[in-house]
Design brief:
Distance between the termini: 81 Å
Largest sheet: 6 strands, mixed
CATH class of the largest domain: Mainly Alpha
Structural class: alpha+beta
Mean pLDDT: 84
Strand order of the largest sheet: 1-2-3-4-5-6
Oligomer: single chain
Strand content: 5-15%
CATH topology of the largest domain: hpI Integrase, Chain A
Number of strands: 9
Helix content: 40-55%
């Protein structure tokens, strides 16, 4: 039976009794367990029934929410009360401990910190990391760092691999692991949950533009606005990374010498490189320079805060769809130049030099190479690609949007 002493409702908790407890007309009412006095159930006017731990300690009340009834059984609620009573006896403040856990940083908090203090300062591709986090970290972003363990990361990584392929899954895992390197800055002292998660094996990609794809590719480019047509052609004719081509400045280009000096702060390896500009590339640049007064070769009007083109993915999707070419990525343009050089008989050292590779084992060999053989190799490869595509570089207008 229920007893009421001093405004306090007390009864021995059973499932049947708790189900039959009346719903208050307004507000909430607490009932306490006679068997375990620190266990209470709170019933609201909306018929929400929740177990609480309630006990006075050091002259003040300590209240901790335990869980909903009947999802949390009476036996488990009593066991939780016993555990909390033991914590208080050892000098632990369970309410403060749980409040600290509620206020602990989430993965999104960690990403924001990493992006501000590392990503934007040291990575040219930080905007791609933002896109990757927004698109592929949905199941993790709102979780507390302390709640993310190796098993959770393993399931997430596996699902990404199944849905988007091993390459993307591995890059997302690498981003998560890098973020956890800064977790201690937010007070998290747990281990990096990525350490035990093995990366997927990635097959080496060998895709490049084939001879019978050159003509439809160039034809598809010819239908693009000059801004994107010239951008993709220069990616192909220089073999440079798309981010470097997008951020090309006139101050770094010497058309008379046929050379483009890419600053070290913008390259992947952090060292300056020299990219040869063969005649078709020079012809494109001469036309663009005659019709722009911007510091950027590929300037935009309000579409990018950087002042130059930033996201060519939509334009690229149009080109490959129009050309009816499958499984071709923008980076494959860089690979195409190297592959066509190799097919023309150029040495791997020459190919590596033309693409700005910084393989430590070959650095001394590269240092002895001059630009003339590199220029001859690139010139030969570009001429072969243009011949296969029956392309002629004409001085058409390059008015940008």
């Amino acid at each position: 039976m229920a007893k009421k002493t001093g405004g306090t409702h007390r009864l021995t908790f059973t499932v049947e009794r708790l189900r039959k407890l009346p719903i208050p007309s307004k507000g909430r009412v607490y009932h306490y367990d006679q068997k375990v006095p620190a266990l209470a159930i709170c019933i609201t006017s909306a018929n929400s029934r929740t177990f609480y731990f309630y006990k006075w300690a050091d002259g003040r009340p300590v209240r901790v929410r335990l869980g909903k009834f009947p999802d949390l059984s009476i036996a488990d609620a009593r066991k939780a009360v016993d555990n909390l009573t033991g914590e208080i006896a050892r000098g632990v403040d369970p309410a403060a401990d749980r409040r600290a856990r509620r206020e602990a940083p989430t993965l999104e908090d960690l990403f924001d910190y990493w992006l501000t203090h590392h990503g934007k300062l040291h990575k040219r591709t930080w905007s791609e990391d933002v896109r990757k986090f927004d698109k592929h970290f949905g199941g993790l972003r709102n979780k507390r760092l302390s709640a993310i363990d190796e098993t959770m990361v393993q399931r997430w990584h596996t699902a990404l691999g199944q849905q988007h392929g091993p390459y993307l899954a591995n890059r997302a895992r690498a981003l998560l692991s890098a973020m956890y390197g800064f977790a201690s800055k937010l007070g998290h002292q747990g281990p990096n949950p990525c350490i035990g998660v093995r990366k997927f094996k990635e097959a080496s990609r060998e895709r490049f533009l084939l001879p019978d794809e050159m003509r439809p590719f160039f034809a598809a480019l010819a239908e693009e606005e000059p801004l994107w047509r010239d951008f993709f052609l220069l990616c192909l004719f220089t073999g440079a990374r798309r981010g470097n081509v997008a951020a090309m400045r006139w101050s770094d280009v010497d058309l008379d010498a046929g050379a483009w000096y890419v600053p070290g702060e913008t390259t992947k390896g952090g060292e300056p490189i020299v990219v040869v500009l063969v005649p078709p590339a020079v012809a494109i640049l001469e036309t663009r320079r005659a019709q722009t007064n911007s510091e950027w070769v590929f300037a935009t009007k309000g579409r990018s805060g950087a002042g130059h083109i930033a996201d060519p993915r939509k334009a690229w999707a149009r080109v490959v769809k129009r050309a009816e070419i499958t499984d071709l990525r923008m980076h494959d343009l860089r690979r195409s130049l190297g592959s066509w050089q190799a097919a023309g008989g150029s040495s791997l050292h020459i190919v590596g030099k033309s693409l700005g590779h910084r393989d430590h084992k070959a650095t001394q060999v590269y240092a002895r190479l001059q630009l003339d053989p590199v220029r001859n190799s690139v010139d030969k490869a570009v001429a072969a690609m243009m011949l296969a595509g029956q392309l002629q570089i004409e001085n058409k207008g390059t008015e940008d949007e």
